[in-house]
Every structure is written in structure tokens, then in C-alpha cells.
Design a protein that fits this description.
Helix 2 crosses helix 3. The protein is 29% helix and 20% strand. The protein has a single domain, classed as Rossmann fold (3-Layer(aba) Sandwich). The protein has 202 residues and is an alpha/beta fold. The strands form four sheets. The protein has a four-stranded parallel beta sheet with strand order 1-2-5-10. A two-stranded antiparallel sheet has the order 3-4. A two-stranded antiparallel ribbon has the order 6-7.
């Protein structure tokens, strides 16, 4: 089943990847709610006006895709968009649910080493370590937050990358091959938020 999605990204460096994601969604792209090439320019609007518009767009969606790029933290909006995605916002008689969220790591200079490195544990298992300096605190606080945390290996204390964190990080290559797999995973976790310690404020 298609989910209504919102894509959060830094325009100056991730616009091309946003376009690739929309293309990869195929027919499901019609459920995308967010900025496109024909969206009105809001650069001359007040901060409060823009925040209200973002809330309005995110309110009707169930999954937020966050493009994780090297200069993402320079954006004025991404951390707000993540916060609005995680908050339950009341409108009239209806309150929005918490969106599922998934991070798509942008390839930079041909690979993902700017953000992640592979580490071999003492028991021989390989795990991926993320440089949290590139991430907003609201992302870091929603990783490895399954409650209780379920280890896939008790010895090296590694967790499943899709279920161990509410905010999973997937490479651009993986996501573009099977976007609906990761969107559905994010949505499923949003229906089980009692199993995660959710941080809703940046």
C-alpha cells in the first residue's frame, strides 16, 4: 500500500537525489506531499508563515524521508521538519499520528565514507559506525531507541539496522533499489511507537 510521504532535504546539495527518489517511487510518487519544481517560492515569507506551511504539508503524510547530506545541518528547516513529523499535531477534532521516518544517506565523492565507517568487532562481526557530528540531535536521539533494545548479537551488542532504531539510516543506492521496502518499514514502526523511546523535540 502506498504511503503519503514528505521528503526533507537541503535544496542546494540534495535536489538531484530528491528527484531520483521521486522517480524511484514510480506510480506511488503521486502520494508525495512536498516541494517540487512548480512549488511557489517562499523565500520572501516570514519564518512563522513557512513553519505553518511545513506543518500543513507534513500533517497529511505518514512517512518522512530525510536526505542525510554533508551540509544538512546548515539548513534552517530540516530539524523543524523532523520535529513536525514526530509530533502529534491537533487540528480541529483530528490529531495527526507520529510519522515513520527514514534517513537516506547521500553518496558524496563516490561513497558514504564521509558519514559511516565499517568496524570489525572482537567476535568477527562487522558493524557500521555513524559520525553523529553530521546529524541533528533529534536524529541521534531517535537511533538505537528500541525499548527494550533487542540485540541480533548478544556478544557484540549489535542491533538490527531496520528495527533497532526508530530513525534508520539507509544508503542512497539501497533506498533507490527498493524505496517501498524502507518506507513500509518506517510506517510499521510508526504503528508501534510504544516499542520506542521517541524524542519529539529538537
Amino acid at each position: 500500500m502506498a504511503r503519503k510521504t514528505f521528503i526533507s532535504y537541503k535544496y542546494s546539495e540534495a535536489k538531484d537525489l530528491r528527484d531520483k527518489i521521486i522517480e524511484a517511487l514510480g506510480d506511488d510518487a503521486k502520494y508525495y506531499t512536498g516541494e517540487t519544481s512548480i512549488s511557489p517560492n517562499m523565500s520572501d515569507k516570514t519564518t512563522e508563515y513557512i513553519k505553518d506551511k511545513l506543518k500543513e504539508m507534513i500533517y497529511t503524510t505518514t512517512v518522512t524521508i530525510v536526505i542525510v547530506s554533508p551540509n544538512m545541518k546548515l539548513s534552517k528547516w530540516i530539524d523543524w521538519e523532523i520535529e513536525y513529523s514526530l509530533k502529534q499535531i491537533k487540528r480541529s477534532e483530528r490529531t495527526s499520528g507520529t510519522n515513520g521516518v527514514v534517513g537516506v544517506i547521500m553518496k558524496y565523492n563516490g561513497d558514504y565514507s564521509w558519514l559511516r565507517t565499517s568496524v570489525t568487532k572482537s567476535d568477527g562481526h562487522s558493524t557500521t559506525q555513524i559520525d553523529d557530528n553530521y546529524l541533528y540531535d533529534i536524529i541521534v536521539k531517535n537511533r538505537f531507541n528500541q525499548d527494550p533494545l533487542k540485540y541480533v548479537c548478544d556478544e557484540c551488542k549489535s542491533v538490527d539496522r531496520l528495527t533497532g532504531s526508530f530513525f534508520s539510516l539507509i544508503t542512497e543506492d539501497e533506498f533507490l533499489k527498493a524505496p517501498n521496502k524502507y518506507i513500509e518499514n518506517a510506517y510499521e514502526k510508526s504503528t508501534k511507537i510504544s516499542e520506542y523511546k521517541i524524542c519529539r523535540q529538537k
